Amino acid sequence: MKLSTERITARLRYPFRIARSGSSARADSTEIVRIAITLEHDGIVGMGEAVPVPYYGHTLESIEQTVASASDMLGDDLEDVDGIIDRLLDAFDDERAAVAGIDAAVHDWIGKRRGIPVWKMLGLDPTKTPPTSMTIGIDRLELLPEKVAQAADFKVLKIKVGTDAEIETLTEMRRLAPDKTLRVDANCGWPPEDIIERMQGVAPFELEFIEQPTKAGELDAVRSARKLAVTPLIADEDSVRPSDVPRLDGVYDGINVKLSKCGGIREALRMIADARSRKMQVMLGCMTETSLGVAPAAHIASLVDYADIDGHLLLAEDPFEGLTLKEGVVLPGDSPGLGIRQTSVPHV
Question: Rounded to two decimals, what is the model's pTM?
Fold first, then answer.
């Protein structure tokens, strides 16, 4: 049984900015670096992708070290997903991006061994997948027409806010896309003392929801703002792992589940089930990653209310293929495992 990593680079279509510092995609860089994980056993190769999230302390080096250490912890039965992930999280709870990549490779391996796609292995129906949003990053107003035009095939647009120009940005977005569903992501950019004023300021734009208005942990401010019932609030940076869900009940209307944060498919399913039991809405997100990185989320996206799995669509070039975009919905294929194939040699 062999676990290995490979550093690859994929270029962004546009430089990407958000209100929070520490993003994996910054205004001064047009490249995103990630690690591809390969699991080889019994002649079957399972693939996964680990995207370092600096906000949570992940680095390329820490991912590589985690994967190297994890090779001896997989056990003899790769179909024992619960046992594998439990052992990895016991040892690497703070390295959940690496665990997510291994989790993806294991699911890919199992699906290939059984000859069925991961979604079928989990008893899911991709036809129930909600449309994904296309992200519009913080940028100059004069670039918005071009970005909106390129997003013509998408019914939902997610606008990054959290700056002094957010009202002007949303005004222009509503002019350019009067019939689109708009949601906004403040990326922790609103001070807690201003959250109510900022929510009231964006309310006239008929938003679907507001994602993570304040810094993680400022739950009292969010709880108070939610009582106004202006616009639904979805947790992102506050929603990392399954143990976070109970404390967000009654504070947020819903949670955003990202596999790179929580540790992969198994942990995401736990978060989704708990949120559903609490009648909370569920959004499924991603990082800026290739089709290989987005694929695990695409296979379980039929379980959620909102999808934001456009990371691979933000790239100028994607070295993998296997996902399809149909009427704004990102869908997995019918090939065994994650159904992803490498089409080109990535930049190293």
Answer: 0.93
